[in-house]
Specification:
Chain lengths: 197, 242
Amino acid sequence: MARSTILIADNSCIIRKGLRSILQNLENSEVLQLIDNKEEVCEIVNSSKPDILIINPNMLPADCADLKSKFINGNKLSLVLLSDKKKIKEEYKADAYINYLDEQDVILDLLQEIISAKNKNAIPDKNADTISSREKNILKHITLGLTNKEIADQLFISIHTVVTHRKNITQKLGIKSVSGLTVYAILHNIISMDEVK
Amino acid sequence: MRIKKDMKLADVIQLNYMLIPVIHRFGINLGFGDKTVSNVCQENEVDLNFFLQLVNAYHDKDYFPKEELQTIPVKNIVNYLQMTHASYLNEKLSEIEQKIISLQSEDTEDQKYILLIRNFFEGYKSELTEHIMYEENVVFPYVLTVEEIIKTQSFSERNREIFDAFSIEKYEEGHDDVEEKLMDLKTIMIKYLTPPANSTLYHTIIQDLFKLEEDLNYHSRIEDKVLTPKVILMEKSIKNLL
């Protein structure tokens, strides 16, 4: 399962660090960065593309309308507000809202829900752990050193399909490099050691 | 906790053992008794300010003294990065390699798989070496030249040539992810291989890989967040000179 990335933006260091330490107990997630500077919010969100942005509304840049359409639709980002005003969630059309007085369990449950919902959308495939026979076949071709184009030609499929398969294989196995995939393929008898090279 | 100049260096290391190789790269050896950070720096002729910024940047992910670090001469930063490079090439990589080799001589059953790991690690090693050599041979000479141009406020013919041939943006673009293979190796060893007979050694190797990755992250943080922005500013002021 892909790890969800989280960005925390608040001008209080107690809140930033406190929240991060709470989120360490969250499964399948990782806090990317803490931001204390309003001016950098746009830039950092665009460059690090987090899945979830937890932000104090005071930190949102003034052109919020633009920010919302661009970030949330463009980056498929979930917006979680950090505030003590309940109404704020509707006001900004946020996905969720954390109150400063919330207990740890409440915060964790809330975020866990967002993350599970995201993962459900991202991976419709139920048996995400093992790769399908089609994917094994593609993997074999990758480890033999063929390019996407060559694989597409040999299997009579489009390059686009090959790229999608590659992406799924990498995501399922957690291995990115071709040499890493080769080791996996040898270990699982998808290819023999003599065939490589 | 922020590391300060009147703390005992021994206490600093108790706080975070990952700092042992860092202080070693400054040429500081263990056995300094109760001396403070500033005493030890003085004795070893290490710039106290630079030392403090650097150990704090290593120690605390959120400590990012952009402005303070910007005041440190490029030459010192490059020096430090070169020492780190040398320790990767001369120590860390070969230590791990040696361990993988001794794993290999254990049991004939495991031979085949360990050979795979070994070949993979060799591949990673040459990739990292190539990356480091590029920085040493192209990037560092360039940034040192930039610093010299700023200092003298003029171009020599040679400096002009180096300045025109490269830009830090090129470096940023090409600064590819050397950690990818390292992560793959860890994943394979953790998820997909059954440990060989000598599992203690096998576990040690995985822990070494984690530490190397952590150290590399610290290292590239200095490159990307300190050196690069600093050089970008310097490039801009040179362009005004032209």
